[in-house]
């Protein structure tokens, strides 16, 4: 049986900052794939390269100093040959962005222009990519605002971003991202700036929308708790590399890599006494590019051994997750 087509297949992606001998590797052989209609979460602590991965796919890396130095980013809608986004030209990327691939950024204000009404900003995408008239685009913008749960959408469409609350702004940003019904939605910490109740609403909204449009979502978060609510599959990143990946159920219940185990141990649970201090992973994340050989996690790993100075093998466990760790090989 042929393997199911991946909508997005990232293969051995490498990104560096700077040039020549002073170049620092930031993404160091990142691979994963997102299947049609599924959600893949990328999780990891601050600075591990989650946003760099998203920006590479969108080809919105700050160049210079960052540049893609290797690998492929295959985007395959199933209606023609796959496109390699790593080498696609600007024109192709401009055509894809906002239409086939849309991104929701961490901070909603950066995605909204303060001087235009919200409805115009949603409509603009439809004028540009779908060739709608201004009038039709505005009508569709109102519909989209209604879809993402903004009350009184006709009035709201005429308002400016500063008249929206944080949660409403993020809904507006989601409406812009959804305007052209993209095959792939990249959401980079879409709820981090929101309070907990609003966060739950926005996550629910994203799940509903995914069902409705059958879109794929690449969901970026530093929160393992959110991964369990949102994703089918998860990729755990540390210092520019994937350390573990697999079905969410397998990774959450049987994390194989000590780093994933640490992230999961720091998820708060409802039945936990309020005064219990969560056990974060000890030590600080070293600067990206500062450890370039062996297991990058060895400086913080409670199980580090001499062999961890050598690059660890990728081992698939019986539960279906793959982890890059010498211990995992020993135990199977
Ligand atoms: N313009 C830049 N110049 C140099 N280094 C950079 C630049 N942008 C990002 N970096 C470095 O690249 C690394 C990865 O950054 P990235 O933004 O992908 O992290 P992240 O996983 O998204 O973190 P966060 O959870 O904080 O958003 C970081 O260590 C950061 O210091
Ligand atoms: Mg980020």
UniProtKB/TrEMBL annotation:
Pfam families: ABC_tran, oligo_HPY. Keywords: ATP-binding, Cell membrane, Membrane, Nucleotide-binding, Transport. Belongs to the ABC transporter superfamily. InterPro entries: AAA+_ATPase (IPR003593), ABC_Ni/Peptide_Import (IPR050388), ABC_transporter-like_ATP-bd (IPR003439), ABC_transporter-like_CS (IPR017871), Oligopep_ABC_C (IPR013563), P-loop_NTPase (IPR027417). It comes from the Bacteria. Its main location: membrane. It is a peripheral membrane protein. The keyword Isomerase does not apply. The keyword Lyase does not apply. This is ABC transporter ATP-binding protein. The lineage of its organism: Bacteria, Pseudomonadati, Pseudomonadota, Alphaproteobacteria, Hyphomicrobiales. Residues 8-264 form the ABC transporter domain. It is found in: Cell inner membrane. It comes from Alsobacter ponti. GO terms for molecular function: ATP binding.
């Amino acid at each position: 049986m042929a393997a199911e087509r991946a909508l997005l297949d990232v293969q051995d992606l490498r990104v560096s900052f700077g040039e020549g001998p002073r170049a620092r590797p930031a993404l160091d052989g990142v691979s994963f794939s997102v299947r049609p209609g599924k959600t893949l979460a990328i999780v990891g602590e601050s600075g591990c390269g989650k946003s760099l991965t998203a920006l590479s796919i969108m080809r919105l890396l700050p160049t210079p100093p960052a540049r893609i130095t290797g690998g492929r980013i295959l985007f395959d809608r199933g209606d023609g040959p796959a496109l390699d986004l790593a080498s696609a030209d600007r024109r192709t990327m401009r055509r894809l962005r906002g239409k086939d691939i849309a991104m929701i950024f961490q901070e909603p204000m950066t995605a909204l222009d303060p001087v235009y009404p919200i409805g115009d900003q949603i409509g603009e995408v439809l004028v540009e990519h779908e060739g709608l008239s201004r009038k039709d685009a505005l009508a569709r913008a109102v519909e989209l605002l209604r879809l993402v749960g903004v009350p009184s959408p006709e009035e709201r469409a005429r308002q400016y971003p500063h008249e929206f609350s944080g949660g409403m702004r993020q809904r507006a940003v989601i409406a812009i991202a959804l305007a052209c019904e993209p095959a792939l939605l990249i959401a980079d910490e879409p709820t981090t700036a929101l309070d907990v109740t609003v966060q739950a609403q926005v996550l629910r909204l994203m799940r509903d929308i995914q069902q409705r449009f059958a879109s794929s979502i690449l969901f970026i978060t530093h929160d393992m708790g959110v991964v369990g609510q949102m994703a089918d599959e998860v990729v755990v990143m540390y210092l520019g590399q994937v350390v573990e990946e697999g079905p969410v159920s397998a990774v959450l219940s049987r994390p194989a890599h000590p780093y994933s185990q640490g992230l999961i141990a720091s998820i708060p649970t409802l039945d936990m006494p309020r005064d219990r201090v969560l056990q974060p992973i000890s030590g600080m994340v070293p600067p990206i590019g500062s450890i370039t050989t062996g297991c990058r996690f060895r400086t913080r790993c409670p199980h580090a051994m001499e062999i961890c100075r050598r690059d660890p093998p990728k081992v698939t466990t019986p539960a279906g997750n793959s982890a890059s760790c010498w211990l995992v090989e020993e135990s199977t």
